[in-house]
Amino acid sequence: MNRPKSIFRRAAEGGLTLGALFVCIFLLETTAGVISGLLALGLMVYVPVYVYRKLRATYIATHGLMSFSGLWLEGILLFACGAIIFALGTLVFMKWLVPGYLPAVTAQVASLLESNPQLAGNQMDMRQLMAYFSSIRPIDISMTLLWASSFTGSIASLVIAAIVKSKRVPPSSSPNS
Asked: What is the pTM of this model?
């Protein structure tokens, strides 16, 4: 007898792909270019579509018997698993693959702020701001991304689960009916 996959297994398997999407978006955003920016935007638009397709597949597999809260939980778990992959990917990128990434971004922010005429006369604020930016570590950014993507994913899952639940399930095409 084929046992259906548990909600946790479905979410973990889908979370691997979702995490890979998040990492690709991050990598595309770190490169400067119009094409990479458009590709990243396209992937961002695809994320809710992907989650919808995963939740819809679950809903159809359960013949419409999956509750709203079950769909929402699967979406939350999907985003949580994806967020873990995302956090690990960004940490590896910033800490070991491109360790000069954060200092380079800090320097860009500094030059951008120095060119601002409103901040030009206030050197104390500028030094404090740059000290703050320089104190940010890769793990800080990774953990922030983990929690932010998990939280926003739970809200997105709420909406997507409601949309999935509002759709009818196609009739079963079994040979016995």
From this structure: 0.88
| Unique residue bearing structure tokens 């094409």 | 35
- Token pair of 29, please? 């955003």
- Asked if 41 and 21 count as a contact pair (C-beta separation under 8 A), the reply is no
The secondary structure of residue 171, as a DSSP letter, is: P
Pair 32, 76: CB distance under 8 Å? no
CA 111, CA 168: separation in Å to the nearest integer? 55
| DSSP 8-state secondary structure symbol assigned to residue 44 | H
SS3 120: coil
CB 79 within 8 A of CB 156: yes
On whether the CB atoms of residues 106 and 39 are closer than 8 A, the answer is: no
Per residue in 20-64, pLDDT (tens digit) is 999 999 999 998 789 999 999 999 999 999 999 999 999 999 999
Strands (E) in 18-112, as ranges, are none
